[in-house]
Amino acid sequence: MKIRWIHTADVHLGYQQYGSAQRADDFARAFQHVCEHAIRERVDFVLIAGDLFHKRAVDPRTMTQAFDLLTTLKVAGIPTLCVEGNHERAFYNLNMTWLSFLSTNDLLYLLEPDDSAGLSTLAPWDPHERTGGYVDIGPARIYGIKYYGASAPQVLQRVADQLAGEAERPFGIVMLHEGMEGQIPRSTGGLSGTQLEMLRPYCEYLALGHIHKRYDFGGWAYNPGSLETVSSEETQWDRGYYVVEADTESRTLLHVQHHINPRRPFHRVFVHVEACTTPESLEQVALREIERTLIDGTAARPVLDVTLVGTLQFADDALKLDRLETDVRERWDPLVVRVKNSTVRVGQSFEGTLGPDGQIDRRALELQVFQQLLAGDSRYERHAAEWAQSVQEVKDSALQKLPPEEIVTLLERGIERAGGLP
Q1: Which pLDDT does position 209 carry in this prediction?
Q2: Whose CB among 8, 39, 210, 229 lies 3.0–4.6 Å from 241's, allowing a Cys bridge?
Q3: Which CATH code, of 3.60.21.10, 3.40.50.2300, 3.40.50.970, 3.40.190.10, is assigned to 2-259?
Q4: Per-residue CA distances from 175 to 32, 258, 352 (Å)
Q5: What pTM did the predictor assign?
């Protein structure tokens, strides 16, 4: 029997990026496009592999958007299946999330292991309690594993052990909100290919989420990327959603097609300042670079993320970033414009911060800034490189909203790496 489904992830409904309510509407429109595609193509179900919402505290407007769009799928007879992402984790001492609310209202299946006994057991879906770790849709069995972070490898092992004991194995799909190591350069964490392979004997398709960049692994594990641009670093990444067709009898994936949904133009512009000897000349160079970027622009008002890079030839306090922002708004009327100063002063050196595309590598630059600051403190000077790596890891973890205990574990590893506290 042939079945078709849509696999999306990292929808991030409700994200008022840069304080813009219109950006939040952009994220809703992106998900609306996916829902309309599902209805138009009459797929059998829709998978959301985590982070339907941008944060766990959901405002009424965002909940209305989610409720209405999920209702259109339900009315069309298309089940929606979801797992909890790191952005949606319940507040401490609370077992219910807004995803639970949507599940209770029969708008989606929130699939997750039962951790009550510490065993991460995948139980069958209970239609009365609206809870469970897997559900059967036609000939397919869909399992769900929420975000576990550092403990994910142990959870996957327990899940694999459970699935190995099943008497009959149906056509299996697993949703998993975890990243894979090596997909983002210089980013730490993520599951290895070996760890993912623990699930391969028990499922034909692994629906991943968490990393906002499209990638696949081994012809069976797929990550679609985010629908909208969640961060300026994602502007060059391939992102969207998958439409998948499979033959359940032969356990074969027939087609896995990636689709790029319409999204608001988001431009990341780097302005190299070395040749600018005055604030006025710098502003003219910046405006020319932005104009060159927007030469093939669309009617939609873009988001502009402008970064000044290189060695500044005059005093920092002579920079007029607010004036540059005003000029950009008057000329191009972007929805959002942000101008950031990432220049260094004459005499400072941050070598090795250019990426393969010749643009500044912000993470490499950030790491060197941390290292120089720490090297200036006699307590950390000897192991400044190790401490800088730990600072960056902790910062990344905090931005990802990892639980405090995981951040503490990272910090403890960093202290050990640096040979202990000074």
Answers
A1: 97
A2: 8
A3: 3.60.21.10
A4: 21, 17, 38
A5: 0.83
